[in-house]
Amino acid sequence: MTLKPFINLIALCILLFSAAVRAEEYSFVALGDTSYEIPDDYPLYRSLIATINAANPRFSIHVGDTKGWGSCDDDFQLGQKAFFDSFKQPVVYTFGNNEWADCWKENRGSMDPLVVLQSMRAIFFAEAASMGQAKMPLQRQSDGEGFPVYSENVRWATQEVTFATVNVVGEHNNQFLRNEALWREFVDREQANVAWIAAAFQNAAFAGHKAIVIALHSDIFSDLGKMEGGAFQPVLQAISQGAAGFAGQVLVVHGHEHTFIIDRPLRVWDAEASTSVGDNLTRLEVYGWPDMKAVRVSVDTSKPWVFGFEPLYTEPSLSPAFQD
User: Model pTM?
Assistant: First the structure.
């Protein structure tokens, strides 16, 4: 009696088990533009975090703007880190404009944005791991070659999906000409962001992943984002080109405009070919203040569209400043 049939059966079982593991459905939560009225919004924010904890996602992504106005100093940033560390599951944070790029404004603390940014990197990305009570390892752009400063740009992978964040913020991505230092910061960070996006697509393709998720703060799909030579155009171009050459699905998650949107912003119909391009890129814009809500994103790589979306919140979900 030969063992070959049994070996073949075992190999088949392993193959089927591996496929089942790869296709396992999971979810993550996306949120942003939280707690504009400080400290009045904090109880509502804690309630939202409790709801996220109860939903038990694989991890959460906060796409920036942890406040509307007020000081950007270390005490504020450390307070936000304490909120992130109250998430039971891992949470990854990418910066918004209100907590660093706009900190030169009087109603945001009259601070030097470059000093604030340097401090935030030390507070939130001192180690190559997520925040939250459960840690998740991250690959920081600063851990590789060429861009030693950009620890806030991170990447990780979960079951055939590549995730990446880039520091791209509204209103104008710190593209200001007030002084040379700010301009140089913008130019250098833009180059780092474009390189990190390209690397994310390359890694996803090399790994044979079915999808890629890119999270950032600003709405790069707006008319301002598409402006040639503008503050967001190179990043939008990098994502568009990456999506065009990628066989799987692409999800871009952002905030800034405070409006829950799911659409295909790059979809263009080709009448002559009777087909469309840009179908594989979906945009999720998360809720924002005064709505203290999040979005649960389901991920199932056995399905051609991969992603599903569901609002996640408790009542009341509206900032006290807007409640009757």
Answer: 0.91
